[in-house]
Structure formats: C-alpha cells, structure tokens
Amino acid sequence: MKLKYKLPLILFVAFAVIISATFSISLRNEARLYRDSQYDMGQAMAIAGSKSVKSFLDININYLLAVEKAVIATTGLNEKEKEQVLGQILMAFSDKPAITNVYVVFERGAYFSAARTDSGQYFSIDAFHPESGGGIELFFDPTFEISEDDDWYFMPKKTQRVYLTEPYEYTYPDEKRARKMITLASPLYVNEEFIGAVGIDMELSMLYKSVFEELRDTATGGYAILVSHEGVLAVHPRNDMLMTEIGRDMEEDDLKGLLGAISGGEYYRIKNVTDAGTTLMSYVPMQPAGIEEPWSLGWSVSLDALQNEAKRAQRQSIMMAVSCTVAWGVFLLIFMSAVFGNITRTVDTLKKMTVGDGDLTIRLAERGRDEFGQMARGLNGLIDKLHATVKRTQEDSKKLLSTSAGLMDLSHGLSESAEVTLDRSGSAAQESGDANGDVQEIATEAERVSASAVELSATANEMGVSMDAMVQTVKGMNDGFTKMTGEARQSKSIADEAIAEVADAIKVISALGASAKEIGQFTDVIMGIAKKTNLLAINATVEAARAGEAGKGFAVVAGEVKQLANQSASNANDITSRIESIQTGAANAVDVINKISATMSRISRSANSIAQSIERETKTSDELANSVTHTNAGAKQVMLAISGIAASAQNSAKSAGDAAHGTEIVSGSIHEINENAGRVNEYSMELKGSAESLKAMAEHLDSIVSKFKT
Length: 710
Known about the structure:
By secondary structure, the protein is α+β, with helices and mostly antiparallel strands. The chain folds into two domains: 9-307, 2-Layer Sandwich (Beta-Lactamase); 390-705, Methyl-accepting chemotaxis protein (Helix Hairpins). The protein is built from ten helices and twelve strands. A hairpin with a 2-residue loop joins strand 6 (179-190) and strand 7. Helix 9 runs antiparallel to helix 10 (624-705). It is rod-shaped and about 240 Å long.
C-alpha cells in the first residue's frame, strides 16, 4: 500500500480509536455523573416536595390552632351560638384544597351541655365534602362514638401535641365507599383542661392531586411520594399503592436501613430493583411544626427513563463523534491530497532520474515557498552538485585511466630494469667471488714468498757463520766454498722463483684492479637504475595522490620502491668507495711487488756474483783471504737484502690479505646489491600488479560514471 493511502488510513484509524475511547470514557463518566446527579436531583426534589408538603400541613395546623382559639373564645356563649360560630368556622376551613372534613369532637359535657350527650358518647361537629358532591355539609352529632383504636383522638389527648395519623380507611355516614385518608388532629384545652380534639381529614387521592401532582417531572417521569412514620405509603401516583408498606420488593438489609432512616428522620437513597424496572429513590425527612414523629417524602425516578435520557445524550455524543470523525476523514483527504501531490510529483521526478543509467539533467518543479518548495530547491541544489561531481568524476576517471596505463608501462620498464639489475648484480657477485679467490691466492703466494725470504735470511746467517769459519781456518775453505756454491745456487733459484711469483702476483693484482673497474661500471649501472627507480617511485606517489582513496595502497608500494631505490643507491655508493679502496690497495700492492721484484733481481745478480767469486776463489787460493773477506761483506749485504726481501714479502702478504678482505667486502656488497635487486624485482612485480588493479578500477569507475547523462 502506498504511503499516501497508508498514512491517512493510520491517522484516521488512530483518530477514530482516540475519539471512540474518549467518548466511551466520557459517556461512561457522564452516565455515572448523570446517575449521581439524579440522586442529587432526587434529593433536591424530595427536599422541595417536603417543604411544599410541610408548608401545606403547617397551614392546616394553623387552621387547627385557629379552631382551638375559636372554641376557647366561644365557651361563654349559649348552645346555639356555639353551634353557629363553630359551624361557620369549620365551613370556612373545610373549603380548602385536599381537605375532606374539618371536625370538632368534645368530651361529654366539656363544651356543650352533658344533657345533650349520652353517657360514653361524644359531641361532634363535621364539615365535610360528600362523595356525591353538591357542596360542604355540616353535621352535628351529639351521639358520636369513639373506639379505643381511634388514635386521631386519643394520641393528641395523650401527647397533648398535634398528631398526624397513619393512613387509614373510613366510611362517612350515609356513604358506601370507604375513603383512604390521613388526619391532622390537635388537642383542645380550656383552662388547661382537655375538652376534646379538632382535626382535619385529608383524602389521599385528593392530597396527591392538590400537592404532589405539581411535583411530578414529566421529562423523566419522576414523582414524589409520602411515607408515614411507620413506613406506609400515604401518597403515591398509583392508588393501588396507597396504604401499602414501603419496600416490599427490597432486600431485607435495604428495607431495614430505609425504615430506620424514616423513623429517625434521616436522609436515605437507594436503587430499588423490581419486576417493573429499576428506580432510584431519595428520601428526606418531613416533620411539620408541632408534630412529634417525623415522616419522609421520597422522590422516585425510573432508571430506564434516566438511561433513555443518557442514551439520548449518548446518541448525541456518538453523532458528534461520528461527525468529527467524518470531518477528520474529509480533512485528511484534502490535506493528504495537497501534501502527497507534491510528494508524488517529487517521487515521479526522482523515478525519471533513476530510469536507465541515470539522467542528471532532470530538475524538480519548485512550487511555492512552503517546506515542499524548499525541499525541491534543496534537492535541485543537491542534483546540481551531484551533476558537477559526476561530470568531474568522469573527467578524472579518464585521466586516471590514462595515468594508470602510463603507470603500468612504467611498472613494466621498472620490472625489466630490475631483472637486468638482478642479472648484472648476479654476474658481478660471481666475478667478485672469482676476484676474491684470486686475491686469496695472491695472499697465499705472498705468504710463501715471505716464508722463502725468512728461510733465505736464515741461510744468509749460516753463510755468514761459514765465512767467519773460513777466515779462521783455510783448511775448511774448499768445503765452505762448495757449500756456499750450493747455497748461492739455491738462493739464485729461490730468487728466480720469487721473481716469477712476483710477476704472477702483479698480473693477478692487475686483473683485480680491472675487475674492480668493471664492478665500478656495474655500480654505475645500479646507480642509474636506482635513480630511475626513484623517479618512477616519485611519479607513482604523485599519481597515487591524484587517485585519492583508491591510490592509498599504491602509494605505500611506491614509497617502498622509493626506499629500496635509495637503499640501492646508497649500497652502490658504498660499493664504489670500497672498489676505489681495492683499486688503491691493488696499485699499492703492485708497487710493493715491483719493489720485491727489483730486490729479488738484485738477489739473483748477487747470487751469480757469489757463485762466480767462489769459483774464482776455488781456482786460486792466493786470493782466498781477499775473496773470503769480500764474500763475507757480500754475505752481509745479502743477509741485509734478504731481510729487506723478507720484510717486503711480509708487507706484500699483508697487502694481499687486505686486498682479500676488501674483495670479501666487495663480494658481500655485491651480494647485498643482488638481494636488493631481487627485492626491487619483487616490488616491481607488485607495482605492476597494483598498476594493473588501478587500471581495472579506473576502467570500472569510468564505466560507472559514463552511464550518467550529464
């Protein structure tokens, strides 16, 4: 379901639920308050009715007091005058609403002459309304009889107060139908002596019509009732309910509480449930002035009638709620139509933008200055920025594509250069190993020369001893000469061998110098490769910076390549300096060996001279002493020369050892160069892979952004 249908439906349902709950609670509270208000209204109506009834009874009590005063005032009159005055007074008071009869009953002989009344009888005067109508009738009855149950007479006499009788039935003389009535009676006292009673009879049906009918509520059907002190219905709209005990349909506890409230003169309310329905009853005490026992006036209203009123109010509330709900629905339709019209147009425009590969030339319609107009302007601004960004991204992707292609070519060149460097460094390492072996051989030969020189020095010493012995004794001259001849020949042979070995050492060291020069050429090549690699790394770093986030990994690789190129250049410089040291040492070794060669030549020439001298001295003994002396001096010179040869041989051995150590350093550096070249080759391969990945990413980015229509 679309939002423009879903949101109004949700709002409508939420409003309906809220309004329903609100009205339900309101109606329930209203019903409760209405019921409570009916109790309060019933109490108010009962109070108002009790006041009306009390006022009515108070007026009649005043009538009774007026009759009492008239009796007192007429006690001095004669019989006829008494009858005439009392008859007129009773006739006047009986012509009042709800009054059936106004009477006076005297004790025998108390007011009228006793001769007129038989023993045990009473004299009565009645002014009553006959059932047949025709006006008020006045009766004088000197033979009136009273039974012991007639409380309308004996209760005032006993209590000396005004008395309101319980409802009763009475049939007047010459009438066939008994009337239901109550009597308001008051005692008559003359000179503080009870002489009789005055009373007013009120028929119950007439009392209802005269007083209670005006209290009826036609809207709710509420009506007032009068309940006697003993709980008997004295006034009720229904005649069949008159003189019945109240609460016959009540629960025992409720009835007990009601009767207690009535007899105690207290307020009481109750909900009475009967077969006819449920009624709400409110009772208030009613006690006219001078009456000892309180009565109660009740107000009764049907709960069904109240519910009808409540239902009518509920119907009105429901109609109002429905009207509000309908109005809310109409408002939602109008409002959502206006709101979602803009939203729908916005969604349709966005759909058009996203159809296909994306058209960034479409713009939203900017209508009005409300939030939707502001949203449209904001989205158009965002689309403009997106359009510019995509267009710039397209251009940058093409540049990145070309740059990545160039970087890929550079990575190929770097890889090839690294491979060449690796091959050449391998060759240099092999040649440096060979040179190291040659230098080791030079050192070995130099050590041999040194050993021979030491041996020659020992031989010269021995020769010196022999020459000294020849000077001492001529006898052993021939043997000495022979031995000297052998030693001289041996020295010449050793010198010749030393000269040959020195010549070989010169060749080896010369070859070492040439190899060092070749290694220097290789280091120049390595330096060139390192410089090119450094330039490539700088270019790769620049291109990686242009690539942004996508070139971060490539920038790391370029940094490593740059670091390796710098390290290779540093190692190449180190190798160059070491090679220069080797060349210098080799030159020095050549000079020393040349000196050794010259010395050995002199030794060889001296050995020839010694041999010739010995031969000459052997032939002639005359020249023996001179020859021996000359030979002794020559032997000393030979010894000195041989000592120089030994020292030179030792220096040559030391120089050869230094040369061997230098060649070892050169060999180690070349091996390190070889290893660095291997790592450069590996990094160049990684750079090549990164360049290929970057090119693929550039192609993918170009394929994405080229889809947008700008």
